[in-house]
Amino acid sequence: MTQASTAASAARKLISFRIGEQAFCVDIMAVREIRGWTPATAVPRTAAYMKGVINLRGAVLPIIDLGARLGLKTAEPTARHVIMVVAVAERTIGLLVDAVSDIIEMTDDAIQPTPDIGSDRARGFVKGILAIDGRMVSMIDLNWILPEPESEAA
Prior knowledge:
Order of helices and strands: HEEEEEHEEEHEE
Strand order of the largest sheet: 8-1-2-10-9
Largest sheet: 5 strands, mixed
Number of strands: 10
Low-confidence stretches: 4-8, 150-154
Helix content: 10-25%
Strand content: over 45%
Mean pLDDT: 84
Structural class: mainly beta
């Protein structure tokens, strides 16, 4: 077996979660912890998908409503919602999701490419599709979750 085929068949662990009726997953290595919903303090003049910030062991953690960020329905958080604390581009953020489902172990060759649906933006967020037990799970690219830094006004 060549080194390239060994890498393609290497197992990858993903953590799956739900937003509404849709299933998504991210690389488990990016997830630092999963915690119950904690009401966030709103921050003025932020994007609609920003729920605010919470105190995480003395650090200010921004919370992003992942459903709203992906263009889905905005969540009204309840005690059943969870925050996935993830590392993205050398920053730690919280992602509000409906529920964490399970850990998926897949090989890279089982990940189907994102279909050409006429939107580069959608293909940016979703870097692959998995077919698992009759359901489709979209693999999210966390690097697209944070917005591009806005230019400072002079």
